[in-house]
Every structure is written in structure tokens, then in C-alpha cells.
Amino acid sequence: MSDKNKFKIPIGPQHPALKEPESFSVALKGEKILGVDIRLGYNHRGVEKACEERTYIQDMYLVERVCGICSHSHSTCFVQAVEEIAGLQVPRRALYIRTLVSELERIHSHLLWLGVAGHEIGFDTLLMYTWRDREVVMDILAELTGNRVNYGMNTIGGVRRDINPDQIKKVLKGMDILEERTKYYIEVASKETTVIKRLLGVGILSHEDALRLDAVGPTARASNVNRDVRRDDPYAAYSEVSFNVITDDHNDIYGRTLVRVKELMEAYKIVRQVLKDMPDGPITVKAPRKIPAGEATSRYEAPRGEDMHYVKSNGTEKPERVKIRAPTLANIQAVKHMLKDRFLADMPIVIAAIDPCFSCTDRLISINDLDRTKSEIVTWEGLRDYSIKWYKEKGIDFSKVEI
Amino acid sequence: MISALFAILVFPGILFVSAFSLAAEFADRKIHARLQNRVGPPWFQPLADFIKLLGKAELIPTNARPLIFSITPVFALASAITAYLYVPLWTKDALFSFNGDVIVVLYLLTIPTMAFFIGGWYSTSLYAKIGSVRLMTQLFAYEVPLFIGILSGALLADTWSLYGIALFYHNNPMFRFFNIIGFAVSLIALMGKLEKVPFDIPEAETEIVAGVCTEYSGKFLALFRLALDVEMVVGASLLAAVYLPSGMSLGPIAGFAVYIVEIFFIVALISLLRTVFARLRIDQMVSFCWKYMAPLGIAQLLINLIVKAVLIK
Asked: How many folded domains does chain B comprise?
């Protein structure tokens, strides 16, 4: 083929394959991918900076909104860091409830992923089935926490809602239904011919590359990287429950699918253990409004991989610095690698296979001038001045607004 | 003159086939939805979609050639409807029939695909261009098995008129059991022509947005969609005429009812198949068609040659 056959097509910022705005510029030669340019930043909300302007309690609700799917992950991770600085002893019952919600969240996230993966390879039937069954766990979460997403379950020093025996019964019943259905999905994902054709050998990430590119979560575990924060650095009640860390040596999307569906089975196991062993007692301890000066890092195994929060306090009621490293940021580097020499048709599923959450990933704003030669990093005040100027040109004056 | 006009415009022409193909689209969508555990659309949804699209503004991309861009949907629909005039068979009196019409129908069925290709190519969108190329690649993959599948049935009947083929299998019902492989091959190839999962590669939503139809809107898109629906009915009728002719001796009304049932049976088969598979990649699709479908078609051809030599002569 001649050079005339080379061209670039944009996947995103708006594209049916992507659930969030993100730009992938794909250089193609026929159907083959020559290279991919990934551009982040369409979803940047300045959460880290905004955390510094708010109290710890307000921050907890803010970081919960970093991601719509793993909201409990971010809030728990943040709360753990704050509790460590403040030296709070969280009651055991609260830890168990956190574990319960976190596993339910994993179930809902993995079922969601399975459906999205089915949609990306044109297998809409799988999407419809998994999302129907996902309603079971969504209803359970709504019953336990009051919300289907953004549960608002955590508070500094414990959890906000207790659970009663009635709810435990409902959860157990839901787990039975889901376990039955998940066995069927394992069957579909591992035996259906067209699914295997689209997944096996696609998006290869070797063991060495997974380590080199710092992949996390199911993406890494499918490349036989035996890492799981729940086991390696137990938080909440994970040190008291037994479960297997699922790994797979397929190194491809097929492996990632198997890891996720098998993790679902482990999640049901954990939920049952947590409900059985749940201790009695208070669900929260009183936390001070002002957190003493100090810093802490907290790790958490979110459904998508290891989530990390760093909090630095200065003795006031607002943190001095909050740093969030969401799992997608660790995995996004691997996508470029996985897409090398693949077909255009593999692009959506390869991107979807890391279970990306782009809004978690967007970091900082850099403003490029038009020919993209110069870029600068803008401070908080600079950004505010810029926005005031921008709106003034549009006829709205925000300069009098106090923040 | 008037009867010819009636045949072209009302029955079995434009009006009837449009209504019938919208009903077939509804059946397809409803069955697909029920199999996926969804509620599915109400019965008038395809018609509502069609009317709504007719009322929408149509945008022609700046770089596209307006004439070609707007004329290809008409070509697609016209050739699909023309093809239909020859295929419906439910009585012993064929509507229009001549020796060789099976070839004409197969060729008329190729024209909508060509129209999609040209329309997509001239709309100058990158997604549409990739869709067009995929459409052509796919055409070369499924066309041969489809032709072999249909024509091997004709070979056994020793005639190249659809009416003759149907009459032969009607008079010798047991012979149609030799054609089971051919039926399967033609059905799968037809799914490629209709761009149904697992062969919806030219309009793969998650890869190239809407493929050739990406830039189409308004009444052009409505015509394209109707053309695809008509293609589905024509293809199903073709399969019904060659592989399952029945009810020809029941008289016009009962025969017509049997014909309708046959079409919906084939549509239901297509819906079932598109529910249980994931979309293939274009390279997998081409290799599947040449590795399995074409050899199976040729095997059918051989079976029919042997049957013809042994049983008929």
C-alpha cells in the first residue's frame, strides 16, 4: 500500500465507543493502526485543588464524585488517609460495612464492564443481560445506603448508616441470584466462539510490559502480576476475610474478562463472609473538626485497580494538599502499547478492556497556543482570572463573586 | 397499462413492499428485543421512524457531491423494490417471470450495496469512507456463497426462472431436503448483505459511528433504511422461493398467508442469529466466508450435481 492509504481518524472527544469525552487520534493504514495519540483533559474538574478550599467532611463528598462507578473507593481511600493522620480507631463494625459496600460496588462495576465490553464487540445481548442483572446489586446498594451511586456511606471515623438483619437477608438473596447468573456469564465469556474470536490474542500486554508500564488491577492481574492491595496491604476488614486473588496468564482481553468474571465470584464469597462475621458495636467514633498536622497515604483496591490518595494536613479544618492517583491513570499508558499493530476494529474493546474512567484520570490544565508550540501551567488564581476574562467577553461579569 | 401501474405502485409494488418491509423490520426488532430481555418497540415504530426522518432537515456535507449524495438512496430503494417484483410466489401463476430472473434478482440486490458504497464514498467523511471500503470488502466475501447457494438450488430444478424453481420443489417436495446446506449458506450470506450482527462490520457503531450512513440525514437516511428493509424482504422471499416453496396449490389467499408466514420465519431466524453472536472483524469475516461458506456452497453444488445425475436422469 502506498502512503496515500495512510490517514488519521478521530475517535473522540465525542464518539459512540467512548462513554466519556477523550480524544484518540488514530493513524491508520487501511484497517491497521500505525499509532495512537491520546489526549486527556476534556473532563478536568480541578478536584484536588478544590479539596484544599473545603473542609474534610466536604472533601469526602467531593472525592466521592471523582468517579461515578467507584465512588465508594475514592471516599474510603480519602477517609482512611484522614483517619490515619487523626489517629482515629474506626469501630470494627464500620470496617465491615465499608468492606461490604466496597465489594458490592466491585460487583456492580464488573457487571457494568462486562456489558460495556459486550457492546464494544457488537454483542449487545450480553450488554442487555448483564445490565439487567446489575439492577439486583444496584437495588441492594440503594437499600443499604440510600443511593444507587455516590453512596455517601462513609464519614470520618466510621460509616453513616447501620445495616439490620432484614437487609442482610436481602443482600444474601441477591448474592444467590447473581452467583447463578455469573456462572452463566463465565460460560458465555469463555465458550462463545465469536466472543473468543474478538478477545483472544487482542490487546496483548506481556508480564514484563505490565510491570514496566505499571499496570494495576485486573489489567495487571490478567498479565499474571499477582498484586492486590486487599491482600498485600489489607485495609477495612480484608485481613479477616479469606479470598483468592485471581490471576490469569493469557495477557490479553480474554484474560482480563476471565479475571473480572472470576473476581465477581470472589466478591460474592467476601460479601457472604462479611455478613456472617459482622461484629456488633458502634458504627462511628467522634472525629475532630480540625485534623492535626501530618500526612498520610492510603491505598485501596478499586474495581479498576489500585487507587491511591495522599492527604497532607496543617492543623486546620481544611487539608493542605490532596493527591489522587486513580487506577486509570496507571493503566492508560498500557493502552497505547496494546494498540500497536492491531486493527481499527479492536480499538474500542482494547480501550474498554482497562475499564477506563477518564474523568478520574484528567489531571491538570495546560493551555496550548494555536500552533501548539508553547504550553504553560496555570495557577488557581490565573485560572480564575482567565475565566473572568472569558466570561466578560461573553457579557457576564463574575469579578465581584467571592469564593 | 393500469394493471401494470397498479402492480408497480400498489401491489406487489412500492406501497405493499414498503409496508411489508416495515412490518418485517418491526418483527426483527421486536424478536431481537424480546430475546435480549427488552420490551422492544411498538408495532408502528418503524413507520414512525420513517415519517420522522422524512420530516427532518437533510444536511449535505460541504465537500460531498450533492447530486451523487442525494441520488444514491433513490437508486438503492428503487432497485430493491424492482427486485421484489420478481420474487413473491404464492400461487401457480407467477406475477412476472421469465427464464433467468433469479440472476436478475441477485444482481438487482447488489445495486443497493453499490449505492451504499458510492453514497458513503462521496460523502467524504472518514468514517463513511472506511465503512464504504468495509462494505465492498464484505461484498466480495458473501456474494459468492450467496450466488452459489441460490444457484445450486436452481441447478437441481434445471431452470433459471424463480417460478420454475419454486414449481419444481413444490412438485417434488422431498428434493428440498438436499438443499439444507445451501439454505444455511444463503441465509448467513444474506445476513452479510443486510449488515446484521455478526456481519454489521460496515456500520460498526463503536468503531466508525454509523459507517456509510454517518453523514446521511433526513429523507436520504429514511430511504437508505427503507432500502435495507426492502432488501431484507426480497432476500427472505428469494430464500423462501428457492428453499421453502409451499402453499402454491392452496389458492391465492391461503398461499399468500403461507408466504407471509415463511418470510417472518426467515426474519425470525435472522433475528435469532444476530442476537447470539458478537461482531466479527472484517478479516475474520472474509476468511470465514472463503474458508467455510464458499466450500460449503461448492459442496452443495456437487451434491446437487450428483443428485441430478443419479435421481433425475
From this structure: 1
